[in-house]
Amino acid sequence: MRVFIITGISGSGKSVALNALEDAGYDCVDNLPVDFIQDLIQSLGKQNREKVAIAIDARRGQSIKDLPKTIDEIKKFHDVRVLFLNANTETLVQRYSETRRRHPLSQSDDTRTPQVALIDAIEKERLLLSDLAETAHNIDTSHIKAHTLRSWIQDLLKDERPGLTILFESFGYKHSVPRDADLVFDVRCLPNPHYDPQLRPLTGNDPEVANFLREHPEVQAMGDDIRRFIETWLPKYQADRRSYLTIAIGCTGGQHRSVYLTNCLFDYFEKKATLSSENTFHLLKRHRELDLGSSKTH
């Protein structure tokens, strides 16, 4: 059975994610106690159900600490993926202000101060969920809209075979480093198409920009160095029994250099996966700033 565990910081989009999985044919359960997860999976298995998505958050208090152990037990018999949604505190505060909902940890155990400040509740939740964040596939929803999150989750569901899924993601440092990145490569030292007026409005997806960058030996050298690093250490990440590995390539604005090199790396490893008879990884590609429609900058 394919088991998708959705967790993360409250207000970061778990409901959106659960709805996307439900649209993909998953049996979905929200806010399930950790102790009931294995019983639910066993029950669905008897009904010959093949896919289940379970959303769990910090409302379960200290019992959330048992979730990593439970996940390890389930992995012995099922294909388990864990998705951790996160967002920066400023964004979370704004979202709670707009919806006027209470944070699930806003209630204090101290009768003298029955309410906890929103920022304190958010930080408490981060601490409770810190172990999960380290082992899951992370998506930072701070600056993305609901439809973009749904689209990214649909990408994750395209290949449901077991094994390591490698996500190549371009980004712009001007818009912050992705919180969900496992490996980050800085390519801002490379020649910048932004300074060519004809190339400035284009992106790394356009052949004119690709041709410009391909003409510079240092661009090829940087790409080769990143490729060799990934090839050297990829077996170690696979041996660590990860489900996802996010490799982020960053330039200043996330429009030209990072997009081009992300495409090159994706194409190389896609070809390698196609030619290998022992392929145990799957590939995804994302251009964060292009997906978000960020204004072009150098």
From TrEMBL:
InterPro entries: P-loop_NTPase (IPR027417), RapZ-like (IPR005337), RapZ-like_N (IPR053930), RapZ_C (IPR053931). The keyword Cell membrane does not apply. GTP binds at residues 57-60. The keyword Transferase does not apply. Residues 165-273 form the RapZ C-terminal domain. Residues 1-158 form the RapZ-like N-terminal domain. Transmembrane segments: none annotated. One of its GO terms (molecular function) is ATP binding. ATP binds at residues 8-15. Keywords: ATP-binding, GTP-binding, Nucleotide-binding. PANTHER family: RNASE ADAPTER PROTEIN RAPZ. HAMAP family: RapZ_like. This is UPF0042 nucleotide-binding protein. The lineage of its organism: Bacteria, Pseudomonadati, Pseudomonadota, Betaproteobacteria, Burkholderiales.
